[in-house]
Amino acid sequence: MKCAITMSYSNKYTWAALPRTARGTPLVLGGDPKGKNFLYTNGNSVIIRDIENPEISDTYTEHSCQVNVAKYSPSGFYISSGDVSGKIRIWDTVNKEHILKNEFQPIGGPIKDIAWSADNQRMVAVGEGRERFGHVFMSETGTSVGEISGQSKPINSVDFKPTRPFRIVTASEDNTLAVFEGPPFKFKCTKQEHTRFAQAVRYSPDGSLFASAGFDGKIFLFDGATSELKGEIGSPAHKGGVYGIAWSPDGKQLLSCSGDKTCAIWDVETLQRTTLFNMGTAVENQQVSCLWQGKHLLSVSLSGVINYLDVSNPDTPLRVLMGHNKPITCLALHPDRHTVYTASHDGCVTAWDVKTGSGRHVLGAGHGNQVNGMRAAAAGQLLSCGIDDTLRRAAPAQEGDVPSYTDVAIPLGSQPRAMDHVIEDDITIVATVKELAVFVGNNKQSSLPIKYEPTCVTIDPKTKHVAVGGADNKVHIYSLSSGALSPGAELEHLGAVTDARYSPDSRYLVACDANRKLILYTTDEYKLAHNKEWGFHTARVNCVGWSPDSGRLASGSLDTALIVWTVAAPAKHTIIKNAHPQSQITGLAWLDDETLVSVGQDANTRVWSVPKA
């Protein structure tokens, strides 16, 4: 079949994923030497964000496995990123395509930290290699310029002295620091002040000092040239393990972050604390990373949120960047189309302001685990069902607020697979593995046992028809009357039905399946709307969505692509390849007739402009 691809598209913006965090594991934030951007990793993505306007972001997705660390070169023209397989990729920051300059394999296991020499010529990478825990090499050729030896366990952190004569210092899980002189770099000595894992080591901007931090809660200061101990900062610095340290640009202060849920600023001359930031009391308020870049002081909480610290008001951050750091499972659109709700498989729900791109978490006792279905309700409320087998409602305290979960958890009796909601009648239908349950408000009106596994549910508010997709390769049509469902037609597919949606004008039903196809039905008799087969995806189609004018629809797939289809011209479509690179698309919705929002397993939310032809 020939197709005309006449529509253009562009990625308007990306609401970026947060850093992927893990308990007991420090995270490394990278800073742009020009002071404009900062970067971190999530899955196999490196995420670059504008420090002044963090809604502006860019992602690099060329690693084939999880990336642990990314650092700018001192020139700012290149970024090096290291992954769990031990590969380092060096790529350019100037071009939008981020052209690969070099790829090296310095060690045979996960890379935990990277440092560049001040002349951009040499690099050192450390981590959990099988035969060695670190390696120094030329950034142009990969040629070895020394060995990292003398420590018996994986190395967590490394830094290059920014001035000549060059030195390298490493921090290891054998509780020691090791100092190397070169080039070529040779082991000089170990420092044994720490009593638990040494987690972070950083030279001051002029290279005259270096500081180390460990899981013993201690921070030590050393002479940058002789490596002599100058003193201990604080006594001890923190009540919990110290995950990261960062120097102020003038080298007179040090920022630290800790598992005791605080960050602190230390005066290097007196070794005393000048500011304490209390970040909260919950486990997710543990601080696992920090960065001091120009006037900005950043920290990362275990929950993944990024805090802009305020020295003049230590207990309240200037701003907090929220979002997701786990795969996003579903998406819902507020009726006014000014707010997008996204939910991830850890139960976190975020409300995004479409105009500003800023995200805020929905508070309260939510599902605590994967959300399987979510729909906006009247008056700014939000309904969701999760694998805790409950239906929950979140409501705003005042108009315009982000909703917060109420204490009411409506038991469903079995695991929900999907849900839909009609705002006008406050009717919700939840498809669980055992039944279709009909709720009016929070009250269960009826249930209909089913023998197939449901995958999706959609209600047409006008006709009160309900379509339920099944893993049995069928779309099951029901009629809703007086709060009860009665079965009707069954529509056959060649694969498990994965999503279905009625058009806003009630004229069509579209269903997609695991056999890579979309099928469009008319709703008067549930016959095929046209004889064109929409089958341009190369893998399972996960989700579909209608434009508000019912003229176009979009589909998102396991093949990482979005396709926009035109009802009036079935042969016309636009393929957005790699809409979420290396990540399947799990949800989509139209903000207006020419703007599409999509979510994926990469934890990113992307907004697309797809003008009409």
Automatic annotation (TrEMBL):
One of its GO terms (molecular function) is actin filament binding. Keywords: Actin-binding, Cytoplasm, Repeat, WD repeat. It is found in: Cytoplasm. GO terms for biological process: actin filament depolymerization; locomotion; regulation of actin filament depolymerization; regulation of actin filament polymerization; sarcomere organization. WD repeats lie at residues 60-101, 191-223, 235-276, 321-362, 537-567. Coiled coil: none annotated. Its main location: cytoplasm. InterPro entries: Quinoprotein_ADH-like_sf, WD40/YVTN_repeat-like_dom_sf, WD40_repeat_CS, WD40_repeat_dom_sf, WD40_rpt. CDD domains: WD40. Belongs to the WD repeat AIP1 family. This is Actin-interacting protein 1. It comes from Trichoplusia ni (Cabbage looper). The gene is LOC113501771.
